[in-house]
Predict the structure.
Amino acid sequence: MEAGGYAFGEERGRESERLAAVQQAFDGPTRLALGEAGLRAGWRCWEVGAGLGSIARWLAEAVGPRGRVLATDLDDRCFGDAGATGNLEFRAHDLTSDPGRAEEFDLVHARFVLEHLPGPEAVIARLARALRPGGVLVLEDSAGLDFAVEPPTDALAGLAPRWERAGASVGWSAAYGRALIGDLRAAGLRDLRGFEYRRHAPGGVSWEHVVSGLERLQPELLEAGVSEAELGQATACLRDCTRQITGPPVLIAWGRARPD
Ligand SMILES: C[S@@+](CC[C@H](N)C(=O)[O-])C[C@H]1O[C@@H](n2cnc3c(N)ncnc32)[C@H](O)[C@@H]1O
């Protein structure tokens, strides 16, 4: 496993492809949530575990020249682009060992990051300390691996428990989103809000992020008792444009630091 405990970080080329598919699939709801959480021009934002950086770049546009965005990640795959107005800075940072600076940000956002960390509760408490009074922490995480498929097939349904076990064996808690609201509350954040959603789309490119996630976890899935035939069926189902697929739930939740 790599520094910071992120098991999906090796084989950079493949991981970048997977992260591009993640952005494609999830940026829409993220932007909606950030707008609902109150994002406005002039804000100072921290995009944590920025991946390929699409949300960091979008935030830099949204906050404009009077605002600024710090984007951090273990990996430097998205670094080197200062944003259209020079208000975007990329920095290497390991969340598990470096708390970041206190009381600096109007907004801190992390998508699909906490679910990869040991002790996410402690990390949330540290992220909360990086908020200025009244600032908002927005977190997004997977809330399980349950799919629904029409016409019905067992190709994905039978996989969920073993898939979650395989994820857990490399430090990925695929159901961590279920704990998000409680952990935000435990970190002292107030006015908790959010939504849970599932994507619906025909099989095909919309599910490439899932296909590449399965590929990345293949050794652990086999170890967890999934056969190669089952993996083949799952992939075929995800790519089958005659099927309508409902993806697993994602929880987006936010809370505010106590005002002065
Ligand atoms: C599943 S990816 C999500 C990327 C991005 N947030 C997105 O949704 O497109 C998880 C990201 O968290 C980063 N990450 C994992 N562990 C980390 C740590 N300890 N400190 C900082 N970043 C970390 C990874 O390098 C990766 O870019």
Q: What stands out?
A: The pocket of S-adenosylmethionine is lined by residues 4, 6, 9, 19, 22-23, 49-51, 73-75, 93-96, 111-113, 116-117 (CB under 6 Å). The chain has one domain: 3-144+170-202+247-256. The chain has a mean pLDDT of 91. The first strand starts at residue 44 and ends at 48.
